[in-house]
Amino acid sequence: MKRIIQGGLTLIITIAMIIDGYLLFFRNRHVTAQSMVQTATSTASSSQKVASSPSTSAHQNYQNGSYTGKATATQWGDVQVQAVIKNGKITAVNVLEYPNENGHDKEINAQALPTYKAEALKKQSAKIQLVSGASETYKGFTGSLQNALDQAEG
Amino acid sequence: MTETKMITKQVIAMGMPFSVKVVIAADRSFQIMPTVQKVTQYLQHIDQVFSPFRATSLVCQFQRGELAATDFTAEFQEVYGLAIRAQTVTEGAFNPFFKGLFDPTGLVKGWAIQTAFTRYLRPLLTNEALVAAAINGAGDLQTGVAAMTSFRWQVGVEDPGDRRQVLAAFQLGNGAMATSGTSQHGEHIVRQDATRTLQQATIIARNLITADIWATAAIELGPTAFYRITAGQLQSVLVDQTDQVMGEAGQSC
Q1: Are residues A149 and A137 in the same domain?
Q2: What is the pLDDT of residues B23-74, one digit of tens each?
């Protein structure tokens, strides 16, 4: 009796493994096919000869219509976006907003204490570790106080 | 308080300089490079996906109407959702559209720094390796400190008239600071009323996404509308066109 149960279990496990392996393989193949065609279509815009390749299998999963993504939590409450898809491409995105529990963006900050009076700052700037500024370029940064502080630290 | 030392590493990503800083106990050592590499790789990845200057980015593909349904990634969804949400809360002053096309550039850097900090630096603050950590991406920064430390980051606001000086300084524990200026858009606007328009806006908030979008919005709004919409709930340092500095909550800085 014990043998029969063992044999039966082994058989069930083997079948499960085969099914699992098949699904995994099938899924992988499917994803690979998708990403391959996707690559082909993204080059299609610049090269006409690829454009004639059929776009059958790749976009089977994305029939024309709206597809809603997962909700993302933000500081302003949850947000969920919806893609409008036509011929496998996103033609528009809609945003579904959920009201913030607080009603409005609450960002009360008691934690940032002003440390120095303006007059004292020139003498105190050696103690500064981080500088917030509006320069956005590398060239701008090289002349900035932050860069000088970073270099001074070695 | 025990003695501490700071380790700084500068990296270039998105065509901008980023400073990654950690503070450790003076008698300990910490290998910063693995963390810096993860941060750099992440920032480079974000640049590939969201740069409006790369034809292959998801943003550019979307602008051309060529973004494949399969590229509607969680990241893309998050940025799109955040951008629209930011537009709403700022009453349109933060605008993620340029000439009618979706362009989240004004949000992506702050979002990327905040995300990189949360993923790669914040966890280090809980395992006793670090006293404090920060990322400063060309003037927009996110800071953190370990739970038991009295260490606070000394953060300065750049003087737009003399970039080697600071206008104000704040102590930050877990927080963020972002600064926007009129010059960064490469435009020189002749303002009719110089006291009602800003040349620089700095916002202090818990997280950098908030600080970043409100700094951008403040420049667009001017001080009066900014104070009205935010109703005094955001800490800020605003500099008008006459070099007048307006501190947060009526305090002089």
Answers
A1: yes
A2: 999 999 999 999 999 999 999 999 999 999 999 999 999 999 999 999 999 9
Structure tokens at B147: 């739970």
CB contact under 8 A, B174 and A145: no
Whether residue A49 is found in the same domain as residue A67:
no
In chain A, residues 14-33 whose CB comes closer than 8 Å to chain B: none
Task: Find the domain containing A88 and state its range.
Answer: 62-103
Q: Which residue of A97, A107, A132 is in closest CB contact with B179?
A: A132
Contact A153 B6 (CB under 8 A): yes
Same domain flag for A56 and A36: yes
Q: What is the pLDDT of residues B12-21, one digit of tens each?
A: 998 889 999 9
CB–CB contact B69 A132 (8 Å): no
| pTM (global) more than 0.90 | no
Structural domain count of chain A? 3
- Give the domains, in start order, of chain B with CATH numbers: 4-250 (3.10.520.10)
Same domain, A56 and A69: no
How far the first Cα of chain A sits from its last, in Å, is: 76
Q: Which two tokens stand for residue B144?
A: 């953190």
Nearest neighbour of A76 by CB, restricted to B61, B70, B85? B85
Q: Which of B111, B118, B144 is nearest to B212 (CA)?
A: B111
Q: Are residues A78 and A23 in the same domain?
A: no
B81, B139, B157: residue with CB nearest A74: B81
Interchain CB distance below 8 Å, A137 and B16: yes
Residues B11 and B16: their CA atoms lie apart, in Å, by 8
Do the chains contact at B253 and A118, CB–CB below 8 Å? yes
Cα–Cα distances (Å) from B122 to B42, B125, B145, B167, in that order, read: 15, 5, 8, 29
